[in-house]
Design a protein that fits this description.
mainly alpha; 0% strand; 334 residues; 77% helix; single chain
């Protein structure tokens, strides 16, 4: 319980406690205890929002535990197992065979009467999946199920911030910019109202998402203002912060056509994305580099860079990026 209570505020300390608990459950051959502890350990990496490479170990452990088909003592524990597998696979192993099964299981639980905050947590993860996998049917189903839950007073402040943040980016991706602005504005208002300014992961994502939304709305000056907030608050010792130092400005530079600076930031974003260990952002940052290489006529470099990117996404839920690389390569022949 100590480890669980520390998750939102001190992820490293939380993991230390949870890994001790996991060892105890393992020694007792307590499968349910191991599943619950593994689920919470995975959640620490989500809240930390810095480096996802260590998730590989816990994905393998959770997969083995789930393969035993345990008799869950409550639906909440089964939900925890599949929602954490969804989260870990999406961010670290997006080609994992249990990813789609986990998405469907979490969607199922969203329509049940399990704990309200668990259901909203599931929706937060499903919106992330919908955007990163470009599976907008899942996004639409999630939106329909979660919107009636947002009026409940039992919804925790933390979940209010996160659900509006993720909804904001989902709306952006489907071109509903006004709703994206409304959702991100609500997320910021809740951060202010509940005194959650120390919630680093949400703050950085909100600013980064605002940049993307504003570029999409052709409001470059406002996007630049948001980007300066990212720069001001970034911690360069954290891999994901380093990525956010470069990713939002890549959208701006791509829109304005400053290829020299775009290449500088794209290469820096790739380096940071590799340190983070999240395949989605590893592929995304390479799109910008390939754009530069195509525009500047560096065809052989482009083919090498796109081949590297294709290797990252092939066989994953990010495979749609292959079409983008096809188009960029085709452009380079003209």
């Amino acid at each position: 319980w100590l480890g669980t209570s520390l998750i939102p505020i001190a992820q490293v300390r939380a993991r230390q406690q949870l890994e001790l608990a996991f060892g105890e459950f393992q020694s007792r051959l307590d499968v349910i205890g191991q599943i619950e502890t593994t689920s919470r350990i995975i959640t620490t990496y989500y809240f930390e929002w810095s480096c996802f490479e260590p998730l590989g170990r816990w994905i393998e452990i959770l997969e083995e535990l789930l393969s035993a088909r345990p008799d869950y003592p409550s639906p909440e524990i089964e939900f925890d197992a599949y929602s954490s597998m969804l989260l870990a696979a999406l961010y670290r192993r997006p080609g994992h065979p249990l990813l789609l099964a986990s998405v469907e299981r979490v969607l199922f639980f969203l329509g049940t009467d399990i704990d309200l905050n668990r259901r909203v947590n599931g929706a937060i993860y499903l919106f992330s999946y919908a955007v990163l996998a470009r599976d907008y049917s899942v996004g639409a189903r999630t939106l329909a199920l979660v919107q009636p839950l947002l009026r409940h007073v039992e919804l925790s402040p933390l979940n209010q911030v996160w659900i509006h943040t993720r909804m904001g980016f989902y709306f952006c991706q489907v071109g509903r910019y006004e709703e994206a602005c409304d959702a991100l504005t609500q997320a910021e208002a809740m951060v202010e109202h509940y005194g959650l300014k120390g919630l680093r992961s949400a703050d950085r994502l909100i600013d980064s998402y605002w940049c993307t939304v504003l570029v999409g709305m052709r409001s470059s000056d406002l996007a630049k203002e948001r980007y300066m907030r990212v720069v001001a608050f970034a911690d360069p010792t954290r891999p994901m912060d380093r990525f956010h130092l470069h990713d939002p400005v890549c959208y701006l530079l791509s829109a304005t056509g400053d290829l020299n600076q775009l290449e500088v930031h794209a290469r820096a974003a790739i380096e940071a994305a590799n340190a983070v260990g999240m395949p989605y952002i590893q592929a995304m940052s390479r799109v910008f580099l390939c754009e530069v290489l195509a525009e500047t006529g560096r065809h052989e470099e482009l083919l090498a860079a796109s081949a590297e990117a294709r290797q990252i996404v092939r066989g994953t839920c990010h495979e749609y990026y292959e079409v983008e690389f096809d188009l960029i390569e085709a452009f380079s022949y003209f």
